[in-house]
Specification:
Largest sheet: 3 strands, antiparallel
Oligomer: single chain
CATH topology of the domain at 37-115: TolA/TonB C-terminal domain
Strand order of the largest sheet: 2-1-3
CATH architecture of the domain at 37-115: 2-Layer Sandwich
Order of helices and strands: HHEEHHE
């Protein structure tokens, strides 16, 4: 068997080069993060928290709310971080909203810390 020599390409002409198609591999979708029942209780009050932000201004990007929840599912203490946010009108409003929320009961007191976002 004799191999054929490649044909010369004329300068300025386009030579078609066929390459096999590369297979497309689909990446699996990231698993959705499961929210805790405590997150769900806080999210249930999202509209009221947003209203606090409308009335008193948006929280800083680093804002967090820390809630100590009793075994019966009631908020024992609620603090906001940074510290100056805790005593602000916005902080007072948010704490009033979350103080009335119902949280899951548990065999021991729980401390929940979540980012505070106005939207």
């Amino acid at each position: 068997m004799v191999a054929e020599a490649p044909k010369p390409v004329t300068p300025g002409s386009a030579a078609v080069v066929e390459e096999p198609a590369k297979p497309v591999v689909a990446k699996p979708a990231p698993k959705p993060r499961k929210s805790s029942p405590y997150d769900d209780a806080i999210q249930a009050n999202r509209g009221r928290i947003a209203k606090c932000a409308q009335e008193h201004g948006a929280p800083p990007p680093s804002a967090r709310v820390v809630i100590d929840v009793t075994t019966t599912g009631k908020a024992k203490t609620i603090t906001l971080e940074p510290r100056d946010l805790d005593s602000s009108p916005l902080g007072t409003c948010v704490k009033n909203v979350l103080a009335g929320a119902r949280y899951p009961s548990a065999p021991a007191e729980m401390r929940v810390s979540v980012a505070l976002k106005a939207s």
